[in-house]
Each structure stands twice: as C-alpha cells, then as structure tokens.
Amino acid sequence: MTIKFDNNTGLVPVIIQDYLNLKVLMLGYMNQEAFDKTLQEKRVTFFSRSKNRLWTKGETSGNFLELIYWKLDCDNDTILIKAKPLGPTCHKGTTTCFAEETDKGFLYELQQTISDKIDNNDENSYTNELYKKGINKVAQKVGEEAVELVIEAKDNNDELFLNEASDLLYHYLILLKAKGFKIEDVETILKSRSK
Length: 195
Description:
The two termini are about 35 Å apart. The chain is of the alpha+beta class. It contains six helices and six strands.
C-alpha cells in the first residue's frame, strides 16, 4: 500500500475515529514524516499547516490519540486512523471537533471498562468481585435483573423501568465477558437473522 500524498503539498487528509464507539473525532493532515512518527510512537502526529511543523495531538494538553489501527481508502489518498483518545479531542474541550456529543456507542466503552476491571483484577470493583464468583453467580444475577425488569415493565414508573433495564444490560455484559464473548458476536448473529 503506497500512500498518495498530494503532489503540491506533500500532505494527505487523515480522519480520526474512536476505536470503540466509531465516532469521527477530527480531521487532520499528515506528510510522510508525520505518518512515520505516528507508526513509530503509536501516538497520532499531524503536519500542522498553520504552524508549518509536525504536531503531536496532545503535546500541550496531554489529550493524546493512541494509534490502534490504520488503513487507506480505496484511492490510497486518505487515511483512516482508529485511535484511543486520552481525553477530549477538540481544543474546545468537546469529545469531537464536530461538537457531536451522543451516547451512541457507549456500550462498547462500558464493555471495555468491564473487561479492564476483570483483566486487571480490580480488587475494589463490584464487577470483578461478581466475575470471580463464577459463571453460575453471574448468570443468576442476570436472571434476577431480568425478573426485576419484567416486574417494572408492568408498572407505570418509567424511571424504575429504565434503571432495571440498565442493571440487566450491565450484568448481561459481565455474562458475555464470562463466556468469552462480546457485543460484536451478538451483533453478528442479529445481522445474519435480519437478511
């Protein structure tokens, strides 16, 4: 794969996307040197057109973009980078430079948080404590939360219903982790059924 940098500027546009929730975070430009530095340091570095120099995102704020994955578009003249943002991406303090604040995709972030607490054996975590009790206890908790959700569904208290729905979903994510699966595996099954 050969990147087609612009003949006049030596730059290529780079779209930055959150690796978990797939939000488009920002657009920047790279030259060959910025691209090489990004791959070497695993932190996204751009070529700043206004400063006329290399610029590593987060070099002053600490809100770095950790490189997870990259690929070229079909014409090899635009780079897509999936990154882990270490704080707000925009200098205005928002998650994205497009001021797009949405909770869509949050389940993937929550799934990662659950996985991290378990994988790092977080001793102060309810999630890890439940996980360590074994699959039977995790499955039992999912069953209890499902029953509580059904009970609240029959009443007219939306707040209680939504809280029980949240509890069920949270414990379901722990159960998926305990079984060695992810939301993506469930999505694959659902997609195959929708055809």
